[in-house]
UniProtKB/TrEMBL annotation:
Protein name (database record): AhpD family alkylhydroperoxidase
Signal peptide residues on this chain, from the entry's feature table: none
Span of domain Carboxymuconolactone decarboxylase-like: 16-97
Domain of life: Bacteria
NCBIfam families: ahpD_dom
Keywords: Oxidoreductase, Peroxidase
GO molecular function, one term: peroxiredoxin activity
SUPFAM superfamilies: AhpD-like (SSF69118)
Length: 158
């Protein structure tokens, strides 16, 4: 796989990514969502979108945070796995429908939203929407530029 574009070489992109990173940091620090959940949601969207770089990053961040390897490895098959809580399942389902908007005529189904709302308050739901939106944007950058997985170091962005 040949990288198409080094986004880090663009002054404009570097400036924009600082804001992107600040938005992610605000969610991580202020949302009340557990960091492993944020990383699981990010990992699942990255798997769906086929972003090698982001899949690599969020897998390593989960491991670095001490998440159990079985739980990390089974994120792609969360529906067929017994290692996730009902709240985590609700967040992963919201992630999938929020990521696959084009696959469903109505976007995120009411039943998916209502299930998530059973487990998360409005502030947390808003944060989940933001996390899902940000990771999908990051995935698109990675896929378009063909950023490969494998070189990410846990914590490299703070």
């Amino acid at each position: 796989m040949t990288v198409r574009l080094n986004l880090a070489a663009s002054e404009t992109v570097v400036k924009a990514q600082k804001h992107f990173g600040a938005a992610s940091g605000a969610i991580i620090k202020g949302s009340g969502l557990p960091r492993p959940l944020i990383e699981m949601v990010s990992l699942r969207a990255s798997q769906i979108n086929g972003c090698g770089y982001c899949t690599d990053a969020h897998t390593k961040e989960l491991a670095h945070a001490g998440e159990d390897a079985v739980r990390v490895n089974l994120v792609a098959t969360w529906r067929e796995s017994t290692v996730y809580t009902d709240a985590e399942r609700a967040a992963l389902e919201l992630t999938e429908e929020g990521t696959r908007i084009a696959d469903a005529a109505g976007g995120v189904g009411d039943h998916v939203w209502e299930n998530a709302a059973k487990h998360y308050d409005e502030e947390q739901l808003a944060a989940l929407v933001m996390v899902i939106s940000l990771i999908n944007a990051a995935n698109r950058m990675g896929v378009i530029a063909r950023m490969p997985g494998g070189s990410y170091r846990a914590g490299q962005f703070g």
